[in-house]
Amino acid sequence: MSKAGTAAGSDAWRFPNQATSPGSSLYYAVRFAPRALRDLLAALSGWRHQVQAILDDVSDPGVARLKLDWWRNEIRHTLGGAPGHPLSRLLAAELARQQQPPELPASAFLGIADRVDQELRRRRPADDAALAAADREDMGALFELLTRAHGREDTATIAASRHLGAWCAGVRRVRDAGLLLRRERTVLPSDRLARAGLGHEALATAQHRHRLQELLAPVAEQLRVDTPPGRELTALPRALRIQQAIHVALLDELLCSNLAVGDQRIGLTPLRKLWIAFVTN
Fold this sequence. Notes:
Layout: H1 3-11, H2 25-31, H3 38-57, H4 61-79, H5 86-97, H6 106-120, H7 128-137, H8 139-149, H9 155-175, H10 177-182, H11 190-195, H12 200-203, H13 212-225, H14 230-233, H15 238-256, H16 270-279
Helix pairs in contact: 1-5, 2-15, 3-5, 3-6, 3-8, 4-5, 4-6, 6-8, 7-9, 8-9, 9-13, 9-15, 13-15
């Protein structure tokens, strides 16, 4: 590919891109971040987007794992100074452009890839603790990377970003539960389903889908109880505080709907997300 072609491909991953498209919660989080960081934050979000897309875009499990391994190798090459994919080239360029380039650990990227691998292999989290740990390795890792991109690297702040990411992932899973079931993805840990006399595959059938609301109710209530308190968020970048505020409002909306998510996707309007982002300091 020519240099011009590569540059054009990389430009497609600048803000806003597929992962930070207008109307999405990540769009407003990045939109209110410092201008100099927006393309870097969009590229980091784009990396997770590309890896997650393997679950839906590749039907053959063997091919999917090969593609996942390619992305694992690509992030190692990128952090080593030899990016190949247009997204990786943008990520490397934006890191180099920062006055004090942040340290982005390969383990955070690889944790995101490992969670996709677990889904591909249908290895379901056994209980709530295992599911929360999985979320910390996925969206929690993305939130860590977004935090590090802002130059925040102390242990407590990184832990808070991981915790917040995992909590937001839990809210999203409730919102997307019906869609996830249809795609044979994890919705609830195995022990909750076992207590209900079900398995993941059984819950997805027409015979048992009506039980989804009943099973999600205690999960959503626990998410409300576990909402990260404000004192944990003060050190986090505004982009992450915006994510928290949007997901708090989303959880309220889901509860008001009685968790009727089996056949519809309940969400916030772009205007409401914009207002939440605007008033979040």
